[in-house]
């Protein structure tokens, strides 16, 4: 009973140095050890599912605003779903452009997550380095799409902004420049001993637990589950060869390294896609209000993103449901946190890459 | 301007709070703190503690659950304090202004001094807003003596 | 809706644990739970699974006041999905409490039910 009497409760967040976004974790502590955790979310709940169902044409714009880190994945997933409802085939050129832009967003998102982990374990220098490399990609994306965060390149039926020959050259040159920088970053993440001490064996998430909590994306791949929706071949992923990056350890280090290796894999995929770009239109026209339902899935940086769309032949949609990857990954913290030290909590929370605007919508 | 005021002017500490944003503006606020845009040259450091902060950078439309937290943070910040609404959503509520769980822009809850437009607000615009906030802040310090 | 159908639905709501377990035992992975309010005043519940790279689902309709068995103890990953349904639609899951996203007294209750959300929401220029 004495140990119970000494239990203290510490609230983490909603406004906390380690969190970019508002989420509250209620920690129950015995001395320095975490014995219980409770999540309190909803700080970011705006009501996107209602807003997106009001006008399916305006939703092309609005669905990017669900999340700014994976905005292009949201709009690709939405457009892919609406295309399935319309029953149109998207031109190969548009599918390749979507693939390239999705990989760019994966790189910016992973570099953010990596920097965030580095900062949470107290390695500010590395945080700055991650963001420095990230800016290279942000600027390239800006040149391609005209925007840094919300690319607004998708329409139902394809893409509305083509990638011209000069831009393709730009992509090629920048990728050559970025690759050695990422390799250098990878070397630091892999070898640095202080970073290793804070991340090896911390925040264990074994494979059976990962399976029962239905985690997705890098979190489950770091626990040894070889699952990547890209293998199912949405957009143009059926045209490129790659194998999902899987690690067995299931700790912060594994989650970090999966993301790091995926950044380099993205460079490979982009370089593989570029020469495949065919001539031809980048979009097809769609006509009339559609009827029908569709499940649409893409592999967002945090894992599988699913849209369920049910259209009823009007401007409004009958139902649109977003199943975001963070919605599955964030509650898994309840399984990771108990048993860890208080000082490791920020690192563990950040290692699942919690995207609260996705979780709460 | 006295010594204390001069010193204060060179260290405007920032508190960043996301009240329901899509993360786009948050990332740009973070980009400000990193090598390419680096607002630390104005002395600005991101501090998570409202009692240490001078300038509040608020992103996103204010959701119902964040409303009280935002008010609470504002009250804890010591004066003279400034509020910068970063991006369209923080300024007006923008695409979310009619959503059921959103109160609207930041100015529906606490007074705002500088509005930075953009979706997402570009880092250049944010720096511009921050510099504008600094000049307002200076004026306010003089008024307070 | 006839009584017969209601009878069927009531058993479906109890049956959910069996069917859910069947999908899991077949090696499927739970993706998510979609709730929809139909025109005839019922909830349609769609449990979506990943079955070897394809989406498979089982679905059933229940009256608005029907209690549904929770599967969260079988599969903790389903907990958030159920709490979300409770919050946004007011579906009655056994032993699942509301308060995931919404603040009592401030946010509208069960906002995704038809005609509940108020406001137009998501008003986009153009």
Summarize the structure.
Helices cover 46% and strands 14% of the residues of chain A. Chain A has 361 residues and is an alpha+beta fold. In chain A, strand 4 and strand 5 (158-159) form a beta hairpin.
Overview of the molecule:
The complex is a heterotrimer of chains A (361), B (145) and C (126). With 361 residues, chain A is of the alpha+beta class. Chain A is built from 15 helices and 8 strands. In chain A, strand 6 and strand 7 form a beta hairpin. In chain A, helix 4 runs antiparallel to helix 5, helix 5 packs antiparallel against helix 14 and helix 6 runs antiparallel to helix 7. Chain A starts with a helix and ends with a helix. With 145 residues, chain B is of the alpha/beta class. Chain B is globular, with a radius of gyration of 15 Å. Chain B starts with a helix and ends with a helix. Chain C is 27% helix and 26% strand. Chain C contains 2 helices and 5 strands; from the N terminus they run H-E-E-E-E-H-E. Chain C has a domain of 69 residues. Chain C is α+β, with helices and mostly antiparallel strands and 126 residues long. In chain C, the strands form 2 sheets. Chain C has a 3-stranded antiparallel beta sheet. A two-stranded parallel ribbon of chain C has the order 4-5. The interface between A and C is large, with 38 and 35 residues.
């Amino acid at each position: 009973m004495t140990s119970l009497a000494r239990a203290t409760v510490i609230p983490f967040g909603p406004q906390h140095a380690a969190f970019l976004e508002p989420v509250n974790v209620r920690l129950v502590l015995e001395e320095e050890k975490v014995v219980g955790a409770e999540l309190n979310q909803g700080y970011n709940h705006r009501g996107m599912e209602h807003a997106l169902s009001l006008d399916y044409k305006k939703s092309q714009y609005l669905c990017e605003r669900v999340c700014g880190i994976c905005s292009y994945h949201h709009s690709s997933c939405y457009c892919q779903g609406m295309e399935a409802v319309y029953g149109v085939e998207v031109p190969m050129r548009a599918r390749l452009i979507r693939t390239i832009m999705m990989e760019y967003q994966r790189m910016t998102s992973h570099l953010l997550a990596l920097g965030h982990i580095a900062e949470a374990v107290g390695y500010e220098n590395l945080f700055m380095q991650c963001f420095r490399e990230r800016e290279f990609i942000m600027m390239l994306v800006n040149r391609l799409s005209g925007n840094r965060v919300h690319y607004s390149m998708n329409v139902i039926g394809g893409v509305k902004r083509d990638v011209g020959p000069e831009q393709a050259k730009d992509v090629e040159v920048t990728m050559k420049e970025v690759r050695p920088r990422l390799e250098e970053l990878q070397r630091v993440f892999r070898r640095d001993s202080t970073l290793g001490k804070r991340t090896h064996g911390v925040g264990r998430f074994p494979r059976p637990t990962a399976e029962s909590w239905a985690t997705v994306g890098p979190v489950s791949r770091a626990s040894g589950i070889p699952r990547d929706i890209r293998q199912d071949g949405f957009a143009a992923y059926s045209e490129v060869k790659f194998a999902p990056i899987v690690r067995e350890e299931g700790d912060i280090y594994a989650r970090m390294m999966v993301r790091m290796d995926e950044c380099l894999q993205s460079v490979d995929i982009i370089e593989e896609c570029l020469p495949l770009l065919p001539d031809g239109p980048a979009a097809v026209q769609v006509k009339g209000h559609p009827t029908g339902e569709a499940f649409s899935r893409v592999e967002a940086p945090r894992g599988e993103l699913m849209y369920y769309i049910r259209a009823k032949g009007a401007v409004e949609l009958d139902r649109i449901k977003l199943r975001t990857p963070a919605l599955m990954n964030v509650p898994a913290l309840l399984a990771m946190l108990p048993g860890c030290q208080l000082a490791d909590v920020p690192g563990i929370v950040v290692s699942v890459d919690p995207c609260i605007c996705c979780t709460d919508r | 301007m006295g010594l204390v005021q001069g010193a204060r002017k060179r260290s405007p500490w920032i508190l960043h709070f996301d009240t329901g944003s899509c993360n786009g503006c948050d990332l740009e606020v973070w980009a400000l703190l990193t090598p390419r845009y680096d607002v630390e040259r104005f002395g600005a450091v991101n501090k998570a503690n409202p009692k240490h902060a001078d300038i509040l950078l608020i992103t996103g439309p204010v959701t119902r659950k964040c409303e009280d937290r935002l008010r609470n943070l504002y009250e804890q910040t010591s004066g003279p304090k400034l509020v910068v609404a970063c991006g369209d959503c923080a300024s007006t509520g923008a695409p979310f202004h009619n959503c059921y769980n959103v109160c609207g822009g930041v100015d529906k809850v606490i007074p705002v001094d500088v509005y930075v437009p953009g979706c997402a607000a570009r880092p250049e615009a944010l720096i511009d807003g921050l510099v504008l906030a600094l000049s307002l802040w200076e004026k306010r310090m003089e008024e307070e003596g | 809706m006839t009584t017969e159908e209601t009878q069927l639905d009531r058993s479906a709501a109890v049956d959910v644990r069996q069917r859910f377990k069947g999908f899991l035992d077949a090696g499927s992975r739970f993706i998510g739970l979609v709730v929809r309010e139909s025109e005839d005043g019922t909830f349609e519940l769609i449990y979506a699974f990943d079955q070897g790279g394809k989406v498979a689902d089982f679905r059933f309709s229940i009256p608005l006041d029907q209690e549904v068995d929770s599967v969260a103890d079988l599969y903790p990953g389903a907990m958030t999905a159920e709490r979300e349904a409770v919050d946004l639609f007011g579906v009655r899951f056994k032993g699942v409490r509301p308060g995931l996203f919404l603040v009592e007294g401030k946010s509208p209750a069960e906002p995704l039910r038809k005609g509940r959300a108020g406001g137009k929401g998501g008003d986009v220029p153009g």
